[in-house]
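Propose amino acids for all 335 sites.
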């Protein structure tokens, strides 16, 4: 299903071809592994897609069958200077802004299973440089459930290493990073991995987010062992944080945030099967793996507030913020 993603470069061709970041990270490390169709155009999405649908009798319907390779998403690599980030180290290299644009109405598909083309779906991009102000408006503090759950009595935040084993869009990881926790990320989905790496690069060249020690890309966290951290010369995690995507039946009738909807769609594309059952099975497997990682002191599992407890006999405590719809279940690792 990854064939449903097309890569869309925006910018002057000569700039794209000479850009070192594009060569190394996008072509050598990403596009060489996946056969994504590539287009280079500064046209708007209506114009681009109209040409794709020119032979279709009904341009409002999104063709989706094995005989038609029209994209469901554009992975946008934007090197226009107004959107890209220019390094300040004297090289003036442009670090593109990478984002994902759905080409169909996601809300409609989730409600009715219909695929209807829409150029009005907004792009999803990770931009840690502009998130700090948003975080301050959400009243996070050391007494917030997430921070309390991940803190240790024996170490300060600056000395505590957290493995975010299911990083996704790194919303919680970003919050933890602003409280000076040291973080190791792990993400298995190739497109989300690229978005994370791009956002981290853009932040770190501006001397931000330097407490992100490493990003494991294209890797299922269950493949990580104590030996993995030794091989990469990384400290062992003190805390393993798990935030598996919630099954849809645990979400209220209102649709979740747009970014989460897009993430769910990508996971469906990756897994090729009913997402909810796979995720229910995977939560238990993730917890078993994490508890078996005896290098960590504890495991934190994020769950919907009304979801049943996993391994109830082993849970130590649950942290919640008032009437929040999520909770953080704490387990001690097997040591």
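Proposal:
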């Amino acid at each position: 299903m990854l064939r449903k993603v097309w890569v869309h470069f925006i910018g002057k061709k000569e700039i794209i071809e000479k850009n070192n970041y594009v060569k190394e990270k996008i072509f050598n490390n990403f596009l060489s592994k996946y056969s994504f169709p590539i287009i280079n155009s500064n046209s708007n999405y209506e114009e681009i897609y109209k040409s794709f649908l020119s032979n279709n009798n009904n341009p409002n319907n999104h063709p989706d069958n094995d005989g038609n390779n029209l994209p469901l998403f554009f992975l946008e690599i934007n090197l226009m200077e107004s959107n890209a980030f220019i390094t300040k180290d004297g090289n003036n290299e442009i670090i593109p802004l990478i984002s994902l644009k759905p080409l169909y109405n996601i809300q409609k598909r989730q409600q009715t299973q219909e695929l209807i083309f829409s150029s009005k779906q907004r792009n999803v991009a990770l931009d840690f440089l502009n998130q700090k102000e948003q975080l301050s408006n959400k009243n996070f503090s050391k007494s917030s459930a997430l921070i309390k759950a991940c803190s240790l009595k024996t170490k300060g935040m600056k000395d505590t290493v957290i493995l975010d084993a299911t990083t996704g869009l790194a919303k919680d990881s970003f919050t933890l990073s602003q409280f000076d926790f040291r973080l190791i990320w792990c993400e298995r989905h190739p497109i989300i991995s690229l978005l994370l790496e791009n956002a981290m690069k853009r932040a770190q060249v501006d001397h931000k987010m330097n407490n992100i020690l490493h990003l494991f890309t294209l890797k299922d966290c269950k493949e990580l062992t104590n030996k993995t951290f030794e091989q990469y010369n990384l400290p062992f995690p003190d805390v393993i944080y798990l935030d598996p995507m919630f099954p849809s039946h645990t979400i209220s009738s209102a649709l979740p945030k747009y970014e989460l909807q897009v993430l769910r769609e990508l996971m469906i594309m990756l897994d090729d099967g009913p997402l909810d059952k796979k995720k229910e099975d995977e939560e238990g497997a993730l917890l078993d793996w994490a508890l078996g990682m005896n290098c960590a002191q504890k495991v934190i599992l994020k769950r919907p507030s009304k979801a049943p407890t996993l391994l109830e006999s082993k849970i130590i405590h649950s942290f919640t913020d008032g009437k929040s719809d999520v909770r953080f279940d704490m387990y001690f690792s097997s040591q």
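The chain has eleven helices and 14 strands. The chain has a mean pLDDT of 82.
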